[in-house]
Amino acid sequence: MKNKNLCMICGGSAKEGHTTLTVDNGERLVVLRNIPAMVxxxxxxxxxxxxxxxxxxxSISATKxxxxxxxxxxx
Length: 75
Ligand SMILES: [Zn+2]
Known about the structure:
By secondary structure, the chain is an alpha+beta fold.
């Protein structure tokens, strides 16, 4: 992917790190921890690659059959 190491907010350089995402899909709150992400060393903006985002979506939809209101998943 082009320019994946450049921050879209400030243009600063980013390094690989991890982030935590919290998603409310209407049925429950899903917290995904330890997601591989790019982190801007200048402004702290975090973002994830497209293929990672697809895996995040899959992880969230995989919780659908469960009855709990909160799911905390290690990615
Ligand atoms: Zn930045």
